[in-house]
């Protein structure tokens, strides 16, 4: 397991849904984010086939909360759009969403489905400004704590006053690698509510609304978050 970005010894990551320990880390010579993107790129169809295609339950509640009171002409950018499920839900509500993803296979998939999509890596690329809403469902959980702080700061600068950054994370302690779902290594960093609140405050967000979603079929609790600039 790669050491945390803060240099502290790693703590145990939650086991996978099947009760197995986290997978062994790939070589430290390879960047964790690049490795994770590569796994998605090589196994994009496996991800699509293994992911619910309808927005419902806690995810629907989180998206509705993020968009509550937001006008239909709002400027909305989504990070990690995948195959466009969440964007399609928002478009069904009358919003226009600019889709992005760091995985080339997902950008191609989005375009094939008729979405306006572009390649964007939130860690290495700049974010466009004057956004009303920025979305990132199950994206920031793949970032180290330093990368997470960097992206939070970028998001805050990209948002208009009162704009919202809605993102989801896996609840837990530590970090680790998992081959669950894709049969290929993906890096995960786990978070507690207090840690997220501290990071959002440090990035300059004015308020934070977090709801912890108890584990279900995924075997992991989630933190569904809406941060307001």
The secondary-structure element order is: HHHEHEHEEHEEEHEE
Uncertain stretches of 5 or more adjacent residues: 1-24
Helix content: 25-40%
How many β-strand runs?
9
Task: Could you tell me the CATH topology label.
Answer: Rossmann fold
Name the CATH class: Alpha Beta
Strand residue content: 15-25%
Topology diagram in text:
Blueprint: H1 32-42, H2 44-49, H3 57-67, E1 76-79, H4 85-92, E2 97-101, H5 104-112, E3 117-119, E4 131-136, H6 145-158, E5 159-170, E6 175-178, E7 186-189, H7 193-203, E8 207-213, E9 222-228
Parallel strand pairs: 1-2, 1-4, 2-3, 4-5
Antiparallel strand pairs: 5-9, 6-7, 8-9
Helix pairs in contact: 6-7
Short characterization:
This protein is an alpha/beta fold and 229 residues long. The chain contains seven helices and nine strands.
Can you tag this structure with a few keywords?
single chain, Rossmann fold, alpha/beta, two-stranded antiparallel sheet, 229 residues, 9 strands
Description:
This protein is an alpha/beta fold. It has a single domain, classed as Vaccinia Virus protein VP39 (Rossmann fold). 31% of the residues lie in helices and 23% in strands. The protein contains 7 helices and 9 strands; from the N terminus they run αααβαβαββαβββαββ. A 7-stranded mixed sheet has the order 3-2-1-4-5-9-8, sandwiched between helices. α4 links the parallel β1 and β2. α6 crosses α7. The longest helix is centred in the middle third of the chain and has 14 residues. It is globular and about 40 Å long. The N terminus is likely disordered.
């Amino acid at each position: 397991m790669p050491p945390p970005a803060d240099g502290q010894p790693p703590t145990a990551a939650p086991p996978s849904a099947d009760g197995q320990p986290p997978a062994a880390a790939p070589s430290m010579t390879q960047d964790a984010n690049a490795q994770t993107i590569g796994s998605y790129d090589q196994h994009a169809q496996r991800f699509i086939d293994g992911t619910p295609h309808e927005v419902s339950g806690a995810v629907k509640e989180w998206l509705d909360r993020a968009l509550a009171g937001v006008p239909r002409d709002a400027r909305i950018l989504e990070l990690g759009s995948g195959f466009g499920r969440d964007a399609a839900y928002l478009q069904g509500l009358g919003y226009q969403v600019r889709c992005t993803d760091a995985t080339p296979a997902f950008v191609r998939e989005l375009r094939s489905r008729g979405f306006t999509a572009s390649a964007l890596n939130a860690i290495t690329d700049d974010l466009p400004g004057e956004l009303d809403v920025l979305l990132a469902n199950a994206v920031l959980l793949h970032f180290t704590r330093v990368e997470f702080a960097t992206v939070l700061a970028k998001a805050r600068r990209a948002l208009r006053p009162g704009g919202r950054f809605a993102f989801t994370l896996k609840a837990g302690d530590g970090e680790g690698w998992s081959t669950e779902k894709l049969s290929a290594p993906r890096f995960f960093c786990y978070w507690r509510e207090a840690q997220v609140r501290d990071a959002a405050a440090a990035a300059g967000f004015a308020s934070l609304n977090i709801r912890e979603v108890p584990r279900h079929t995924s075997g992991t609790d989630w933190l569904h978050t809406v941060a307001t600039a």
